[in-house]
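User: Predict the complex.
Assistant: Input components as received:
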Amino acid sequence: MKQTTGTLVVKLVVLAIAAVLLFAPFLFQNVRSVEVAARICIFIVLVASYDLLIGYTGIVSFAHTMFFGFGAYGAAIFLKDMGPGWWPVALGAVGGVVVSLIMATAIGLLSLRVKAIFFAMITLAAASVVLVLVSQLSQLTGGEDGITYKAPDLFKPATKLLVDGNGKVVKLFGVSLNGKVAAYYFVYLSCLVLFLLMLRFVRSPLGTVLEAIRENEARAEAIGYRVVAYRTFIFCLSATIASLVGTVYAVWLKYTGPDTSLSFDIMIDILLMVVIGGMGTMWGAVIGAVLLVLAQYYLRDLMGAASEALSGVPVLPELLAADRWLFWLGIIFILLVYFFPKGIAGTAMQAGARR
Amino acid sequence: MTLLSLKNVKTNIGQYAVLHDVSFDVAEGGVFVLLGRNGAGKTTTLRSIMHLWRPSPGSITFRGQDITGMHTSDIARMGVAYVPENMGIFGTLTVDENLVLATANGKIDQTRLKWVHSLFPALEKFREKQAWSLSGGQKQMLSVARAIIEPRQLILIDEPTKGLAPSIVDAMAEAFRDIAKDSTILLVEQNFRFAKSLGRDMAVIDDGRVVHAGSMADFAADQGLQDRLLGLSM
């Protein structure tokens, strides 16, 4: 998409989000807020990697959390077996990527020739099988309980990143520079690098080929591009990035279970984020992830406060009761899809592009 | 020398037999025109050559090599370009990106680009514009430009003048004459005046069969044959 006023606004908003996330541990000095910021970072990359599939190539997959889970379980299994350290993290990341690549190549080559709906069904089946297997292979995966482990020593809350003359941890803007801050920046920087890599990729000639395939498969074939090969490649790339960010999330959480990495709820969240943000833009992933994660964490609190504030008014307090947050989230989603059919970023970036 | 040869090509689309028996040879160089009424099977013939529809049975050879079962992208890489009838451009990409997409290594030869721009000056003016924002004629120019941005031995062009203003049709004819100096063009066209001005050889398809093949000069001179095969006097 070319430069329009809308594109500039979207890029500025994304830049502002990146700046807020960069200083999150200092801006929001409570555990929950930093947790939310880290989750936003993770989901930006996860959703952007899914956008490579659905937005840039038109592939609908329900197996994205499967690849996310491979990376998370890879790190979890090695950290549990080998103890805290960087080697288990590296081995887990490599292991997750290798398994993801094998699965993505097999699914891609066998089923990317078929119609989109059949491919979606095949990925759904594969993800379901993996979910059942993880539950059944409890010796390895911890089953439904998942795996709890320790992160590398650098990320222990007791770790002092900087000490003063008295041996006490240095505080910056009132925040102790300890292992928790290091863990957050590990997440932030990993996600930033992965996001920038994806951004570079979609700006490359290969990204242009993918756009061409999305627009008209037969036309792309007729000028010499083997569509199945390109689709399989992008499916593998997307799976690799999902797996790597799964590893990062596992290191941050120090727990990996089906609910945190493999569940279909996460898959639905990814779909919602990519639709709300805007497909095929990359920037949409940032906006979608921020909005949905914030809604998931704070809409309930916000509605509770609004309900209390309106306690004297008839009907409204009941309508805005905190327990009804999912209902309102649904309404907001419907309104967003109605008013921003191409997602927030997609619609904004198109504004001004028409002659 | 024969560049492309179709022998007894039959193509079904779903349960419908569209091509029943198509055979003709295209000699190297110049413009070969495929004429016929609407629905006669001209577009299906081009799509069958590109393997966008699967011909079965029958054989298609290009430079003496059987390409009947080959993948579309492999046929394209052998030096066959295809310009579909519905202005086959990629609307979300810019004019330049559309052209780069058709190169083998992602780089455009600047001398060739200058030549393409000399044929279609509008494409130079709107290099950075997204292709969807071009006019119908400019889109058609881009579609042809993409086919010639690298040297091709055979260019299949499907009804390039459909819906275009007469001035653009004339410009297109000039461009095709220039292109045909280095490449062979297999042109599907309903505008007989346009086809007549370009074609060296021709064939007429009717109801999925080749019913006449020969030189364009002879066909253009025989009004009775035109009336009988094309159904109207042009």
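The radius of gyration of chain B is 17 Å.
Let me know if you want any component modeled separately.
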